Amino acid sequence: MNNMSITNVGIGLRAEHYQEIHQTSPAIDFLEVHSENYFDKNSLNYFYLQQLSEQYPLSFHGIGLSLGSAEAVSKNHLKQLKTLVAEFNPFLISDHLSWSSWQGTYFNDLLPVPYTEEALSRFITNINQVQDHLQTQIIVENPSSYLEYKNTDYDEATFLNEISERTGCGLLLDINNVYVSATNNNFSAQQYLDEINFNKVQEIHLAGHIRKQFAEGEILIDTHSKLISDPVWQLYSANINKIKNAVTLIEWDAELPALSVLLGERDKAKQFLREVTHD
Amino acid sequence: MIKPPNQDNLAPSSLNLKQLQQQFSQSLLYQESDIALQLKEKQGFTSQQLLQIHRNNFVMSVTESLKSTFKYTEQLVGADFFDSVARQFILRQPPAINNIIVYGEQFPFYLSNLTQLADMPYVAEMAKFEWLYEQCQKTVQQPIEFDLQSLQQVNPDDFEYIQFSISSHCLIFESSQNINLLYQMLINNNVEATNLDQPCYLLLEKEPNFTIKVTELSKQQWQLIQQLQQKMLLGALQPSILQEQLSYLITTNLIGDFSIVKVKEDQ
Q1: From the list A104, A106, A217, which residue is nearest B45 (CB)?
Q2: 3-state secondary structure of A226
Q3: What are A258-275's pLDDT values in tens digits?
Q4: ipTM of the prediction
């Protein structure tokens, strides 16, 4: 991971903050971008990324590979990603344990994969296709989930560990997603974190969610639109000593606040890390 | 840990991955689907309610993308109407490429066919303009090094074979509605009742700082640029228009280059 260590905490780069970051050059360990937003070399996004890449290490976070689809990964998408990777040399490339497209329709959402033997086999094939094409390792993120399939062969943590074991890919552990899924699907977030193979975790995501009230009860929605919740900070803190070789990222995508708010969350994460590493 | 099968919670007929994703996709598009049978019951919630979270994520996230491209169109019709029309459009013509940033080309045409907007043709025209505006931002910024001296040295016998190239960062727009006036009113936040039923010809030029310069064209200028974009040779262009407009195109750097194109006649 280049010169990155567990004490490094980055933020997600969003267009609203381009100019401020470029002009004020705040101390940030790394910036993470949604790869698809930078596929077009002639776009304003790409122009800013070129400038910011001179100041900051980059990680690429994709939402379009649709690794869980029962069909091969789009060659066109892969080609564009490879070109972008060659240009910017990110220290991490990630996507999700989910599917988002099916037979020519793209749903722009991270849809749940059934944790079956068949889905595992397909997921492994797709990851191998991506890693072979990019000639580098990728890391895979656990999703937020709102529903569960009846027929499954694995729990999610085991499914992720198997994928990592069989493909050599790394894991991106989103602690907010673990909390959201555990609350919605009534399982123990801590037990999930006990099962995850932290040796494979190369990045931790922290983000905010909302609580949506229905007449029937409450569901947590992973919106990336709020401050990181106390229970998520508690999970981060309680498991921080398991982190071997992972950086941390503050994610915020909707209702974007001032850059200073993101940096405040970054500082909070760094404080937790300092307590463990005694830096 | 590998889970033991839970006999009480098994789906009545298990689908393979392709079937499951087919059924899930149909459900997201509000088409007939049996996917709910594959989902665990959650206390208090029906499977359809849980699926609705993903339907909402899909429609709302794609709507946000359309709003980002068509922000002035949204201003013209209001957020509620825009949301409603966007939803219909998304479900009928969902994104086809795994990159939401390139979605929306057909939206203006969808708007132009809506009966609710039949008395407001400027809405769909504004959407066409906004789509073109966004495409212009993604054009290749071409350095202008038009070699006037080389043009002067062309053998007069070859004049008819000259093919001018319009700079790649220049796009043209035509409408039966005065979209430039409407656009100016919208960006200046000064929309007034006015007659927009007038033709409009515009040039959109990408500046080095990624802003877009919008300039009004005459109909003749627009026609000439269109013909040049279609790679028509000088000999096929109307001499009177050429005489009047060519110097304008050269001095305003719209012409980036030229070449002599002689097509061999069939033997």
Answers
A1: A217
A2: coil
A3: 999 999 999 999 999 998
A4: 0.95
